[in-house]
Amino acid sequence: MIAFLCGLVIQVDLGSCVVDVNGVGYLVAASTRTLAALPNPPEKARILIETVVREDAILLYGFSESAEREWFRLLTGVQGVGAKVALGILSALSAGELVAALSTADKASLMRAPGVGARLAERILTELRDKAGKMPGGSSGGFTVPVMATPVGSIEADALMALAGLGFRRMEAAPVVRRIMEASGPDATLDAVLRDSLKDLAR
To answer: Which contacts of 122-129 are long-range, i.e. CB under 8 A and separated by 24 or more positions?
Structure first.
């Protein structure tokens, strides 16, 4: 199995690149995030690799950092998430954003990725929510988001829905709303939480 490639990046295309290692050109599929991090051809680079062996092919998937490779492995373990969809998710969301989306049950953020519909997004949330805090970008990686779902019909859920209607992304608004809810305690009201959240988010 190939763990990484170190060679000249001689070509970068949409969704893949070619790495020349001692005269052998390896075609490596990658997220837009990894491809954007590569040097301009022809320059040397080191790319982490996940090797997938199929009956008809040996496929290489490249990553600029180990966190992205770990997320790729986790995502492709979900039924219905193939390598192409996993790379699409990793192109749309960083490791920290993935943790936030899973921890706050933010289905809309997952659906920004090509190939992820409502049903698949729900499956990803269901299967990976409890694992998010242990992944890179989670509590061990400096991006801490409590691993809990927002109860439907709660003040918190209503506030997040209202803020989304005003153009704020859920992963941006959720930590703010949760902090204000905790500070307000049992006396929290929807109007007060919304008002204080807007003040914080407008800074």
So the answer is: 123/78, 123/79, 123/80, 124/75, 124/78, 124/81, 127/77, 127/78, 128/74, 128/75, 128/78, 128/102, 129/102, 129/103, 129/105
